[in-house]
Design a protein that fits this description.
Layout (H helix, E strand, L loop, with lengths): L1 E5 L3 H12 L3 E5 L3 H8 L10 H10 L3 E4 L2 H7 L2 E4 L14 H13 L4 E5 L7 H15 L6 E5 L9 H6 L4 E4 L3 H11 L9 E4 L1 H32 L3 H9 L20 H14 L5 H13 L2 H9 L8 E5 L14 H11 L3 E5 L4 H7 L6 E3 L12 E4 L11 H7 L4 E4 L6 H6 L3 E4 L5
Parallel strand pairs: 1-2, 1-4, 2-3, 4-5, 5-6, 7-8, 9-10, 9-12, 10-11, 12-13, 13-14
Helix pairs in contact: 1-3, 4-5, 5-6, 9-11, 9-12, 11-12
The structure holds uridine-5'-diphosphate-glucuronic acid.
């Protein structure tokens, strides 16, 4: 099938590559000339396991193309995805200007029936706005062309994006058009094997499903962080509580890991956006407000532990930091807990020696002018002459380190762990003073 994807970000690029891989003929359009040129040279702008060979092989086979030419994109695709960003505007609402600009471009260049598919995470009612925009532009151009707008939210996770897209848990299709439903079922047929993963519903419910999923997951995390904070005060161990409640299948083991807060480009933005959307229809989303508030304070947790330990004076101290990305297997630093920690440490006069397996370049780009940040080539090098070690991201490479080496390299045998990677009793045996989240401090 002929497919066009507007917006070559995480979602757009992965979706396009995966569709090309199963045989569809895909054109990707982006306004960023530099990004398009890099992709045409085989350079992938993001770190995502498995993505580079997928993009390169499909580009070489001609099933995946990149262009800045919107009219070429519109004339190519019978199905046109909108996968551009919806950044938060000043009050946290999702800003739809890019989505609506693409809708306008599609309408301006459209010559025959098209199915326009919203892939971006967009507030409930956006498909209606996209439909209105296209209809208005067609009307002013005196063009009488039929089209459908579909909501088809994406549920991929960074770091596992290719796999998530290849093997989706569900394929949500929000549409009122039988014709569009048939076409989308055909498009996704290669991913819909074994059992039917397609769930068809009305457009507004599909739009809300996306927010509800992310907000539910964020709620699980903030809830568990709250329990961790209680465990700490009661002298209990949240890791035992986690295992205890996760064994109930109604609760489940996933997304109940306490830590130094959730980050990334989705949870913080989507929780905020749903709070704002709720306000706009006269409803106060109290649970979500609390989810956000708990996460905000949780991101300051490691800094509080450090300040408490050093009697509220870290001036001149050097902190070794393992993990910069907002989670493992990505180089994404958006809303990362490490940023809150580093910025607070710098403000308090401390220096940071950091290591991350993938996010060093991105960190360098963000903090290019920060004199109190040193990026180190290995996790061991980051320890040299530091006053303590702090862990912000649970990369596999941090799970079984050489504890003797940590003790010998640090000036003090002191570890602050924002992801609960180690057993407190083992740390004690190694002679390391260990602060973790909610583990009966
Ligand atoms: C999230 C959702 O998981 C995807 O399903 C969704 O499609 C995506 O947002 C999106 O809207 O595009 P992602 O932002 O890539 O995916 O990251 P997650 O793996 O969900 O992790 C988010 C944050 O929660 C990370 O900072 C992670 O460290 C934290 N987390 C996760 C915890 O603190 N505890 C947990 O138990 C799980």
């Amino acid at each position: 099938m002929k497919v066009t994807v507007f917006g070559i970000g995480y979602v757009g690029l992965v979706q396009a590559a995966v569709l090309a891989e199963v045989g569809h003929d895909v054109v990707c359009v982006d306004v960023d000339e530099n990004k398009v040129a890099r992709l045409q040279d085989g350079e992938i702008p993001i770190y995502e396991p498995g993505l580079t060979p997928l993009v390169q092989s499909n580009y070489q086979s001609g099933r995946l193309k990149f262009t800045t030419d919107a009219s070429e994109g519109v004339s190519h695709g019978d199905l046109i995805f909108i996968a551009v960003g919806t950044p938060p505007d000043e009050d946290g609402s999702a800003d739809l200007k890019y989505v609506l600009a693409v809708a306008e471009t599609i309408a301006s260049n459209m010559q025959k029936y098209k199915i326009v598919i919203n892939k971006s995470t967009v507030p409930v009612g956006t498909a209606d706005k996209v439909r209105e925009k296209i209809a208005t532009v067609l009307q002013t151009k005196n063009k009488n062309i039929d089209f459908d707008v579909v909501s088809n939210p994406e549920f991929l996770k960074e770091g596992a994006a290719v796999n998530d897209c290849m093997r989706p848990d569900r394929i949500i299709i929000g549409t009122h058009s039988a014709k569009a439903e048939t076409k989308l079922r055909e498009l996704y047929a290669p991913f819909n094997r074994n059992h039917d993963k397609v769930i068809v519903m009305d457009i507004r419910s599909a739009e809300l499903t996306k927010y509800a999923a992310n907000c539910m997951l964020a709620t699980k995390i903030s809830f568990m962080n709250e329990i961790a904070n209680l465990a700490e005060r009661f002298g209990a161990d949240v890791e035992n509580v986690r295992r205890g409640i996760g064994s109930d299948p109604r609760i489940g083991y996933q997304f109940i890991y306490p830590g130094c807060g959730y980050g990334g480009s989705c949870f913080p933005k989507d929780v905020q956006a749903l709070i704002r959307s709720a306000n706009s229809v006269g409803y106060q989303a109290k649970i979500l407000e609390s989810v956000e508030a708990v996460n905000y304070t949780q991101k300051e947790k490691l800094f509080e532990y450090i300040m408490g330990h050093f009697d509220h004076d870290v001036k001149g101290k050097t902190v070794a930091l393992w993990g910069l990305a907002f989670k493992p297997n990505t180089d994404d630093m958006r809303e990362a807990s490490s940023r809150v920690l580093m910025e607070k440490l710098w403000e308090a006069g401390a220096r940071v020696q950091a290591y991350d397996p993938e996010a060093m370049e991105e960190t360098q780009r963000i903090y290019a002018d920060q004199p109190n940040l040193k990026l180190m080539g290995t996790k061991e090098a980051a320890l040299a002459e530091a006053d303590c070690l702090v862990i912000c991201t649970e990369w596999q490479a941090f799970r079984a380190p050489d504890f003797e080496l940590i003790k010998n390299k640090l000036k003090q045998p002191l570890v602050f762990d924002g992801r609960n990677l180690y057993e407190p009793s083992r740390m004690k045996e190694y002679g390391l003073q260990y602060y973790a989240i909610g583990r009966g401090l």
